[in-house]
Write a structure and sequence with these properties.
heterodimer; A: alpha+beta; Uridine Diphospho-n-acetylenolpyruvylglucosamine Reductase, domain 2; Uridine Diphospho-n-acetylenolpyruvylglucosamine Reductase, domain 3; Enolase-like, domain 1; 3 domains; 5-stranded antiparallel sheet; 4-stranded antiparallel sheet; 11 helices; B: alpha+beta; Ubiquitin-like (UB roll); about 35% helix
Amino acid sequence: MISKLEVYSPKTLPEAYRHLQELNGRAKLLAGGTDLMVQLHDRVGVAPAYLNIWGLNDLRGIADAGDHVRIGALTTYTQLIKSPIVKQYCPILIEASKTVGGAQIQNRGTIGGNIVNASPAGDTLPILAAFEAQLELGSQRGVRVFSFNEFYTGYRQTILAPDELVLAVRLPKPEPNARLFFQKAGSRQALVISKVVLAAQAGVDDKKEIQYIKISAGSVAPTVIRLRQAEALLQGQLLTNEVIERARQTAMLEVKPITDVRSTEQYRRMITGNLLMKFLRLL
Amino acid sequence: MKILVIVNGNSHQIDAPPMKRLLDALREDLRLTGSKEGCGEGECGACSVFINGEVVNSCLVPVCQVEGTEILTIEGLASDNCLIPLQEAMIQIGGTQCGICTPGILMAAKALLDQNPRPTRDEIRAGLGGNLCRCTGYVRIIDAVESCASNQ
């Protein structure tokens, strides 16, 4: 089977765009391979052709771009973990990257792969949602910038056109005193796919009144989601025990988890609420 | 597809389909059978090798991505029949039983010590988080890695 697959390995972005144009949706994108090679091994979702973009060095690197941090799509988890820029502006992305597999996966898996693979359990995705990241999408037609929060249209479905690549993620810098939260709940610490992931950022004043809050969760719906009802409830509120309890219950009801091999619907609802409560109590 | 790589210091040309797993190319084409297949999906780490100094699961890397790289496998650790201290420590301290996971554990432990010559026990546990061993219970593996850390 392996020997019948067509593989293209462009060295430049224009070359990659030309292949995408010609392949017209027949090809899957191959970045670090940490998900795709497993699918191939299990004979699941095998495509007739693969566009190996690993050689596109223009898609690597992390830069301070003024009001945002620009992360190239082929940046690996190890590169995120080691980046002083990410440490300064989005330390929870480092925490998240450390929970993705072991060193072997972190050296190979990429943030662009996490995005385009479109799993609702992608570990970095709730952070991108809570930071209201923008994606740079490139094709022969040009580059467009698209909101991460509108990138997914359904389970493992995205708005990425067949001739497009994700080039980079733009992560808006948080307010200087923003409080950040990331936690992944799974069966064990190492190398686990999450039962629930929660990421959030918030601003509180001296009286413990919430100025703004953005909350996102993974593994609890067909796509990564924002918890807009809990956000609306908390906006402008003083963080009393009663408010925290109402937010916990709102979050539990707002998510749409399923029961599967990793966990149950009920447990996922409970953990989502509890993780949000944990963050709010830390504020 | 013809692919040029340096494996354990020697140049090789591999002729294989582009999506063939590096693990299979090493074992079948180069007859380097030290790297093992456990799970085949990046969970167990038994197939760990270095590509350009970074430890990876060779079962998750297609050969089309290794053109021009330097690969180090378990066979490349010892030179002139002289084991590296990590290998000696695994034998002395008993960090190995059935042996299937041992090549991968050694590669991951070497990657850890290359980056962090004096890891704590927690850092050793995190560094070996991508490797499974079903025999030892890990204590002696961690003891062996720790003994090399303190000796350096």
